[in-house]
Amino acid sequence: MPTNQGAPFPAVVDSLSHDGRGVARVEGKVWFVDGALPGETAIVRPTKTRRSFSSGRVDKIIVRSKNRVQAPCQYFGTCGGCVLQHLEHSAQLDFKRRILLDALGKAGVGPVEVTNLIGTTPWGYRRKARLSVRLVPKKGGILVGFNERNSKRVTPLAECLVIDASVNFVLATLPSLLQGMSTPDRFPQIEIAVGDNATALVFQHLEPLTTGDTYRLEQFARKNNLLVYSQSSGSGPVEAIFPHEPVLLNYALPEFSVSIGFSPIDFIQVNGLVNQALVGMVIDWLDIGATDSVLDLFCGLGNFSIPAARWAKRVLGVDENPNLISRAHDNAHQNGISNAGFECRDLFSKDLAKWDPGQFSTVILDPPRSGALEVLNLIKGSVKPRILAYISCDPATLARDAGTLTKSGTYRLVKLGLADMFPHTAHVESVALFHRCEDTVG
Ligand SMILES: C[S@@+](CC[C@H](N)C(=O)[O-])C[C@H]1O[C@@H](n2cnc3c(N)ncnc32)[C@H](O)[C@@H]1O
């Protein structure tokens, strides 16, 4: 301990951790400091002490970073939704660039540089979110919001600056809506999904809804021009409350004259405008032509497969979620695409080696945070694409997988893009483009 156990102490912050906390080294020990920025000297109040590293939060800033800004959100510091609002937006991007390059460097990939940056407005961008609901009588009843940082407690939100405006304006009314339900403490979550054509709220409930509950939700939907659904026990199918036959949500990818339909619980990329640019960049980088065959692994609704099919000879999309695969089929059909097929398959399965998808000239990989290690042998061994785009939401697993692709000399990293998909959070979305080495000579 730098001073008396638990007493605040001064520290110089030299960097930011991957989760957006300031990192200080004091008497040989690493401290992760909530709210501190690199270059700052702060008085740190310890919150958790461990033998190898400890955590604390800023009590007072003594020397202030030139990149520090006043966080616009009234809940900043408590709400776990955003952790970087106190860092000027372009410095947030520098931080993300550094995290990405460091991860690749540690994995022995590189040296590389970020060649492309995609970003749009950093506010009101979130078209998908899951709000937590808790009944806390001593805090006034029902609380609706994101979880607090590192805690299951809920930060009650009357507004949210990063959420889409069509939801923001009803946030303050959600507690009183739920308070009037038959079992107000039995609605653990509200899922939000914003399409170009409508906004949907899905109320998860642990007890059957009464007629009165349904009526209340219907009035709420009518008044706020929303689609409202219920979902029992949090994992079952969704049921429409109002309208009884709602429109299918959709979002457009105008560059490709594509419209993607989705249900409110389907996976969609959080930031609609960044997604448009991301899909455009990936398809451009892959330079798909009329003789190309494209394998889109972790394809979801067909967000990349369907635009790719506009240029390719054929496309195969693969995902483990049967609902997404069925929707991808529908999306291809609705967009007049007949050269794209979709297949349901667990790409982390131990039996994957038995699968032979055949050769493809082009691969798109967009795995969850855990990465795509399991499919890399298949890609290198039998699929053998000339070009591969890897879309990643976790630099650590991207770096690991990029190491596996490049170390054997089979592929090389030729371009690296950073997408500002989640401004003010510490999440890093990136795209890495790989060429098969024999095709890159010269
Ligand atoms: C980051 S999302 C990408 C979806 C899509 N490419 C898009 O842009 O909307 C990751 C996808 O991986 C799928 N997935 C997760 N685990 C999987 C597994 N074991 N096998 C195959 N797909 C999986 C999810 O269903 C999800 O659609």
Description of the structure:
- It contains 9 helices and 21 strands.
- With 442 residues, it is an alpha/beta fold.
- The chain folds into 3 domains: 1-68, OB fold (Dihydrolipoamide Acetyltransferase, E2P) (Beta Barrel); 97-120 and 270-439, 3-Layer(aba) Sandwich (Rossmann fold); 128-194 and 199-246, Beta Barrel (OB fold (Dihydrolipoamide Acetyltransferase, E2P)), CATH 2.40.50.1070.
- The strands form 4 sheets. It has an 8-stranded mixed beta sheet with strand order 6-20-21-19-18-15-16-17, with helices on both faces. Strands 8-7-9-10-11-12 form a 6-stranded mixed beta sheet.
- Helix 1 (89-106) packs parallel to helix 9.
- The model has no long low-confidence stretch (mean pLDDT 95).
- The protein binds S-adenosylmethionine.
- S-adenosylmethionine binds at residues 267-269, 298-301, 303-304, 319-321, 324, 346-348, 366-368.
